[in-house]
Request: fold
Amino acid sequence: MDRIGVLSSLSHHCAARIEALSLHLSDNNIQHIESLIQGCENLDQGEIDLLIAPSNMVWDSKEVLSSKGLSIVAALQRNHPFHVLVSSDDPWHLKADAIILCDEKIIQRQLLRRRGKIPRRLEIRNFSQFDLDSNSGEDLRKAERMIKEGEIDGFIIPRGSYSLAGLNERRHALLPDAEEMAGMRFVPAPFVDLMVVLARQGFHPHVIQSWTDTEATNAWSVTKTILERTPKEFHDHIGIHYRQRQVGPMLEEAEKVKDLFVLETLINPEGDVDDLLRYEIIIETVNQDGTMTTGIERVGPVDKLNIDIHFMMNDWNSILERMHMSEEE
Reply:
């Protein structure tokens, strides 16, 4: 019987995800953890066998993990790896002077982005400018009341936070699919809805394969690699999208929108298509006023992901080196 520690946050409700997996974990002892430091100490001292925690917290405390010899061995399935705009208006119809609260710099810039050289004229503020904490359910409910009272026009939070805070205002998904978003693409901020499993050295991931998710584990690995190899000055305004898909649906979608990049990637020179599972990666950064986007995309077989991501990062850094930084903060 494994003893599993669970650390939750408003945007990464690990406890709720574990409860949904109760059939797989009925023989395990589940303990709620108050902080990542406490969880790492419990894991290091053998008081628990596994720790499930929000990936953003784990990334911010990676030095602690390294000092204790702990590692990420798996991740939980992602349900909603995107943010939502909580507003009576959708992203396309926000009024020109709309006041929108958002703490993610990459999404602030994506929201300002529009086709052409003139950015959208929205007033985007941080939650703290209204004495609100985006990680507090009580403060999010207060922000919802501010919409109804006309003080603000909306706010942006992870989809998971919306459910946990018990909000009722209309929500609009901010998705990475430009076709689905009518041209307004939102490449997600790193780590959204990504919950990882930590263990001591020597733990074998196949033991927990029945209730963990390979795609989510790959998402952690890809995000970690991208951030490790991207200059730190870009970290707070970089978007990262990772998902895995079967070839059939990808071909149908690419043919529908005439996406030559995807079609050429999936179909070999002889016109044949294999049935290998594919990964899709999008990385992008946007300048401060939303007038310039720099990005890179890759599609390939999942079994070549570990090799491909390193070549992709070589190309990504070459692109960043050519960027003009004069318009950045």
Notes: The chain has a mean pLDDT of 90. The chain is about 35% helix and 20% strand. The longest helix spans residues 305-322. The domain at 3-78+194-213 is CATH 3.40.190.10 (D-Maltodextrin-Binding Protein; domain 2).
